[in-house]
Amino acid sequence: MSQIELRNIRKTFKVYERPEGKWALLRGAFSRTVRAVTALDGISFTINEGELVGYIGPNGAGKSTTVKVMSGILTPDGGECVISGRVPWKERKPHVARIGVVFGQRSQLWWDVPVSDSFSLLRDVYNVPPGQFQKRHDELVETLDLGGLLKTPARQLSLGQRMRCELAAALLHSPDILFLDEPTIGLDAVSKLALRAFLREENKKSGVTMLLTTHDMDDIEALCSRVMVIGRGRLLYDGGMEGLKERYAAYEGQDIDEVIAAMYEELAL
Amino acid sequence: MRVYFSIFRIKTAESFQYRLAALSGSVTSFVWAVIEVAAFTVFFQYAENAGFAGGLTLAQTVSHVWVRELLLFMQPYGIDGDLIEKLRNGDVGVELCRPLDLYWHWYSRTAAGKIVVFIMRCLTCFLAAFLLPGGYGASLPVSLAGFLLFLPAVLCAFLLCCSFLMLMTAVRTNIQWGDGPMYLLGLMGGVLSGGYLPLQLWPDFMQTFLLFQPFAGICDIPARLYIGSMQSSEAWLGMTVQLFWLVVFIALGRMVMARRLKSVIIQGG
Ligand SMILES: Nc1ncnc2c1ncn2[C@@H]1O[C@H](COP(=O)(O)OP(=O)(O)O)[C@@H](O)[C@H]1O
Ligand SMILES: [Mg+2]
User: Measured between CB atoms, does B178 come within 8 Å of chain A?
Assistant: First the structure.
């Protein structure tokens, strides 16, 4: 049975725009023009337990919006979404207790206190039994090589170090599913490789289902057997990496990045 | 329940980095209070000559000034700036990924944010005021009974203040609003809490209203018990007023927050 199921999910944002030109400020106080931006235009897919799926698409395609809907923190306008038998935004608390989320551009660590304090807080937040927590904690500290970082405030960590801590923070409560929204953004080559190795290992060892958005095609090639491509809020491709390459065989011999760029262009994204 | 104490603890630890700012604030408080005491002394001399009798004696008023400095940390303005920032930049999404009640999560943070100001600014200023010559400095509570009632009244005041700030935070979750209305409401609350002038020095016909309005419980009611202008036998009335508004603010705050969260739009990618 599939663990994650989305059917025809839609989300439109209202964007308020201030009028331009003379007296704009004054007029803006009374009237604002509203523009509707369709972020998700009927997205459907299913993901099975233990899968590691890559989710790609150009900027503004709707990747983050999809992740937010699946995390239960954004209510879509229409469509259905069931994850492990729950509708995320309707049963937010039990749902989020079983998932982990990493937003590459945000931090879940407390900025000015040692990383280990953030970790102990998470133990209480997820109500993890102490023995189980300690075991998981030591495991993650070891595999992510966090030993030297635990006493450092998050503010003083380099991006690569922080991202390793973020991963640990998202996995301390042993979630069934992990959503990663651009986790490799801004990382150097060494950190990227370490992160990929860790994700691959973690997926294999503890069977965590992972969905990973990225702009880095190497991430996808290294990690995912399945890739979904989204553009303008629609799912354009869902299948193996080879299939994607085959479909764009005309570009054969070219770098995968160029294949993707060609694809985006062809679809006029 | 335990997790909210953990949040309280970690936020307190974080706030202690501002201890120097709070400590220097205590000098400001001290100087202001001395000026106020001097002004009241002059005012009372003239008023007595003119045969005017207010609701408090000079000694009570001076004592009120210093108790007020002690309770200054719970003024009804100053929402936790971090929370506003989280709402603005979308980090609230990270908080919503926790299996917690966002209201009590943020309530604990709000409460913890006040502790450092209390210890470093208010307590130091108040204790220093005992060094001033008699008639100008702080006085001991008027009776042991008054002091024993003062303590729970301060606790109620603290919870009341936090629940009011949470209501303001909840209203502020409508991210289209600016700070203007909040600021005005805070200022009004400050005046009505007796934070500028003891409420019992206001005209007689306003006294009933002043005692029963929500802000009296934040500063004036505990202060009355300390200086003895509210008899111990009347303390139950004061604390009932406090508890009544506490329940009202919590109920309203939770309602507004739940409503807003349903439609909150998580910003950013
Ligand atoms: N809170 C919001 N308010 C208004 N528009 C938004 C909001 N969040 C996202 N959008 C719009 O929805 C579209 C999809 O955004 P997003 O899911 O963040 O894209 P991606 O993560 O793929 O880059 C974009 O056009 C973006 O401008
Ligand atoms: Mg994004």
Answer: no
Q: What is the pLDDT of residues B8-23, one digit of tens each?
A: 999 999 988 888 888 8
E runs forming strands in B4-124: none
Which residue owns the Cα nearest ligand 1 atom 26? A60
Angle, helices B2-15 vs B102-116, to 10°: value is 40
Place of tokens 């702080």: B138
Residues A141 and A187 placed together within one structural domain of the fold: no
Q: What is the ipTM of this complex?
A: 0.88
Model's pTM, two decimal places?
0.90
Q: Which domain-ending residue is among A120, A148, A173?
A: A173
B200 CB-near residues (< 8 Å, 6+ apart): B54, B55, B56, B207, B220, B224, B229
Let me know whether A139 and A183 are in one domain.
Answer: no
Q: Are strands A52-56 and A226-231 parallel, antiparallel or unpaired?
A: parallel
pLDDT tens readout for residues A79-123: 999 999 999 999 999 999 999 999 998 999 999 999 999 999 999
Calculate what percentage of chain A has a pLDDT beyond 90. 69
Does A63 fall in a domain? Answer: yes
> In total, how many domains does chain B have?
1
Task: Identify the pLDDT of residue B82.
Answer: 85
Q: Are residues A94 and A183 in the same domain?
A: yes
Q: Taking a C-beta distance cutoff of 8 angstroms, is the pair A13, B265 a contact?
A: yes
Q: Is B268 contained in some domain?
A: no
Assign residue A87 the CATH number of its domain: 3.40.50.300
Residues with CB under 6 A from ligand 1: A 13, 15, 37, 39, 57, 59-65; B 265, 267, 269
Residue of A31, A63, A73 best to disrupt the B interface, most CBs of B under 10 A: A73
Q: Which of B3, B93, B268 sits opposite A125 (nearest CB)?
A: B3
pLDDT of residue B112: 94
